[in-house]
Amino acid sequence: MSNSAKITISCRINQRPCSFETYPMTRLIDLIRDDEHFTGTKEGCGEGECGACSVLMNGELVNSCLVPAVQVNGADIITIEGIIRENKFSALQEAFVDFGGVQCGICTPGMVMATVYLLGKNPNPTEAEIREAIAGNICRCTGYTKIFEAIQHACGKLGALQ
Amino acid sequence: MTVKRPVIRKDGKDKVTGRAQYVDDLCFPNMIYGVSVRSSVARGKIQKITYEGDLPWKDITVATSHDLPGPNVVAHILQDQQCLATENVQHPDEAILLLAHPDRQLLEEARRKVRVEIDPLPSIHSIEDSLNQKTVIWGKDNILKSFVIEKGNIAPLWNEAALVVQGEYRTGAQEQLYIEPNGMIASVSPAGITVWGSMQCPYYVHHALMVAFNLPKEKVRVIQTETGGGFGGKEDYPSMIACHAALLSLKSGKPVKIIYDRAEDMACTTKRHPSITRHKTALSKDGKLLAMDIEFLLDGGAYATMSPVVLSRGAIHAAGAYNCPNIRITAKALATNTAPYGAFRGFGAPQSLFALEMHMDRIALQAGLTPEEFRARNFLQEGHVTATGQTLRENPDLPGLMGTALNALGYHAKRANYADHNRNPNSRIKKGVGFSVFLHGAGFTGSGEKNLASVVAVEATPFGRVRVLASSTEIGQGARTVFAQLAADALGIDYDQVDVAQPDTHIVPNSGPTVASRTTMIVGKLVETAAIGLKEILIQSGHLKSECSTEDFSDQFRNACASYIKAAGPLKSFAQYQQPGHIQWDDTKYQGDAYGTFTWAVYAAEVSVDLTTYEARVDNFVAAQEVGKVIHPVLAAGQIEGGVTQGIGYALYEEVRLENGRMINNRMTNYIVPTAQDVPPIQVIFAENPYAHGPHGAKGIGELPLDGVAPAILNAVAFATGTTLTEIPLLPETLMRAMSNE
Hints:
Helix content of chain A is about 35%, strand content about 15%. With about 160 residues, chain A is of the alpha+beta class.
């Protein structure tokens, strides 16, 4: 990695223009966490299995530990910190807390990002659709049940707001 | 009142917005990174270490055991585990030396360029080889701990019995797989050592640092950062990482961060002990247990670490929730050349209870009784005496709990229907229902709580804000929330007026480790007592009226705090654990009251088994338990649902594959845990029977749900397939083998 030459990358993270001098294979998660200090994005496995590092890149849900810097040039990245400002999803975050969808919290930002992505495409998912949408996000605490409840409740609320 | 209500968890908002600070989220000026160089062999003698490659070695901090100011041990129960291997390595991936540098890329390169030459020695990798002393690798006989629990006399019963049933049961290792890997930051200065990290037990880390660095207690400070799951996996191992980070900081003069990546965490840190349990059971002609002879063996790995106490809990639970006049439990933890096994939710009980509950179904079948009828004839009741000679002072309503669980699953109708369905040779998907009955001892075993003598403090500010001070950690289970509920109710103030301090050994007293389902029951009771003490101080000093109206009580309390502090200084109340008089325990004989109380449960599972792929799937699950009193309904149900899900993984998916003692599937790609697609609907039912010594009658519940899931599922699979099952994880290939052996 350190053998290759550094490149310049420009992108937007949470609507903030960012520029990095970095190696082409530097991971997006490292740009987000180490360079931009958005530490809400978590690393659980570093191989795209746990989903704790989920972010939106150009509107698509990605594991930021698998995206190399070279692919980030020009991209629009939204992390957990970026959705706080968008009020329409605060009902979702509230539901995660109220319904017990949060325990240790390390999977939670990724879980919320996966749900934001789901609800953006499908505001009224069935339980099967919810299960499928968060199947790439491992939670070791909750047994998922309360996360399903939180998402279902939030859909009702979000629907009412729209 | 906030107790029994689903108040909003204290840490919820920070976690759901990504603001909560875990150890890897912290950065300090001049901080550098640390990594470990590890053994490539299972056992051997270190011959030579060379630093190769064209790397700036003079800029890289290198630390070995020789740099430790104190003895080269990670202090646990026994001091047998090396902090860094010096002459001998005892297991694969044992840490030998440490490197630190500001550039993580360079550091990784350097790690690969350290060449450690080790002359291999013969190693052992199974309980059998260890027991037979194929090679002696630990002590004089490989036995990390052994003891016998005896009640009555089993010897005369084998000839009198109407039926004798034998069975052998095996369980594999299980990885805790908290989603936040282990990590620590240490900063060493002449003033002492400070570490920040992911952990369950700040005072364990504190003790280990005092020993390894030969420092007095005031020169060591341990601060818990937000912890992304533990499940036992952050009970003892964080002590090791803290020593490593502190050593690198001592050597480099800079703060050092060590974060394990997933592969390192899975390969090197502790996992659930693999086990073998052998049962020989004598039954009378009316289906009553006459004698139980139980051999319980654990693979402890290369060092003793937590194995003696895991063995205790596992063995004490081995006879389960049943009354039997004659019991012998022979327990041994054995050394093998693999990374030490350690604490994992349930702590030995899931292993021994898996064996027992599979065996109970096997006996029932041979005795011609239904599983529920056979169990009902032998349930423990108030006044009965357990294997350790503990007279039960509570009445577990096991028949009631069993009825509730089985009805909730529709067990009886399904069992009849599925028996018909399964007889059809054309049915590719076989269906089954099964269940387990079990108990879990709450709090430390035996005299553990007495020896810990835990302390909690509650303090108040002049503005009437109350703070709970305890070293018990929030690791997702909701400790912070429950402590605040208990303090608020004891004082009669709002839940929102109570804060819970971040565990920091310079600030909080030692309320003991966050283990053993003790945090709500034992430490929560101390929180309540300390809070009541604080109110008493205000009343007795005349600052608060003993009879006050409830309407404006918050104002009265605030005024009382302000006037007390102005007049008398800091307002703080302590509470220390006092063992209830009824608990008597003899450590040398394993006799007496093993636990202050037990939780009781009946778990029932409905499964489908695909005879083409041999995959078993859980379709429905009922978890019915008596837990004293529920303090927070959402958190309590969350504990059960999460535990059941880990139990499903333990039963069906999670296999730790070892090759010469090294975990070879140490990635989330090939170590499979349940996803959102794998969990069935889980119906959680709480029965309540208050425990006099728990806060509001609560008992501990954290570990209970892991204990009975695997046998409920496997009993259901056994029913579906008509096959005797004795082993977990029940992977498709395991089931295929079992079915082709029948």
